[in-house]
Design a protein that fits this description.
The longest helix has 15 residues, at about 40-55. The protein is mainly alpha-helical. The protein has a domain at about 40-120. It has helices at about 1-15, 40-55, 70-75, 85-90, 110-120.
Amino acid sequence: MNKLVFLIFLLLISCGQTFNSNSGDAKFAITTCADPSNTTLFNATLVLADRCINCHTGYHDKWANYCTNNDWVNAGEVLPGNSAGSLLIKILKQNAGGTMPKNQPKIPDTEYQTLIQWIDGI
């Protein structure tokens, strides 16, 4: 009987979880509203969701709702065709004075290049 109660308890506390937070598979639960046919934007938003948006609250909550290049440009986060001048890139640790991601190492170079290619291609 105790085992049954315990199993029911485990089942109830795990309901609604889309990933096993202890196994590191949370990255597979990342979602984006960007159109997958725009691969540069889509891939960039996956990087941002994984490395930026999931840690921020408040102001950065809006980032999860930026679904198009124009959303990012109109918000002043990126300058079309100018990754070096874009705030989003300037704040990363890869650049002098950049502090993001906070309390974490730099984002991997492949992910950094994904962001650069996206912005430069707008």
